[in-house]
Amino acid sequence: MSTQDSQQRILENFIIIWLDPNTSESDVYSQNIISQLRCVSNWIETFVDPNRCIDYLTNIENEKAFIIVSDNFSQQLVPLILDIPELFALYVFCRENQIHDRWIKDHHKVKGVFSQMELLCNVLKRDMQQADLNLVSISFASETSSIDINNLDQSFMYSQLLKEILLKMEYNETAKTEFVEFCLIQQVENESAISIIDEFEQKYDQPSPIW
Fold this sequence. Notes:
The protein is an alpha/beta fold. It folds into 2 domains: 3-131, Rossmann fold (3-Layer(aba) Sandwich), CATH 3.40.50; 151-203, no CATH class. It is built from 8 helices and 5 strands, in the order H-E-H-E-H-E-H-E-E-H-H-H-H. The chain has helices spanning 3-8, 28-38, 50-58, 71-81, 117-143, 154-168, 173-186, 191-203, and strands at residues 14-19, 44-47, 64-70, 87-93, 110-114. The protein has a 5-stranded parallel beta sheet with strand order 2-1-3-4-5. Strand 3 (64-70), helix 4 and strand 4 (87-93) form a beta-alpha-beta unit. The longest helix has 27 residues, at 117-143.
């Protein structure tokens, strides 16, 4: 992985992996799918070969993978990867809704069979947000062992950590410029996110209750 790729992954705890024999960089349909996925996460890896996908998955070290697999590979691939610790969740995407979901009900990591990418992305976003909250809870618990974590709401812990970070930050024009540059690196291929970053850069100095 290049230095630029590494910089783009600093904020990412999760990877979206899309395995589909029909995906192609030059295919408009595939690019539309990738654009929808980028609204969920900026770290997306695509594969057409299941063996390469498995190799990549087993080499992941510090992240959790959310895999979208086409129905062409689903029954072949699922039994081979479900026990891999780095696999957090798996979603079967069937373009023509020809697959039956009875065979996946015994696999807790398989979240369902989807024929609409928009619906799949909504479920994926929800699952990633929950997984992110779980990671924050673990981090918060390790630093506040004297508190009964079981009695604290996850959103409360998340807000406390965010508040602590914001209070320690120093704000000036240089900090704003560095922040914008950093965000642009993170979202280099995400057009919707870049639009928000540009708006922030242009309007941040204007009176506003929140950014």
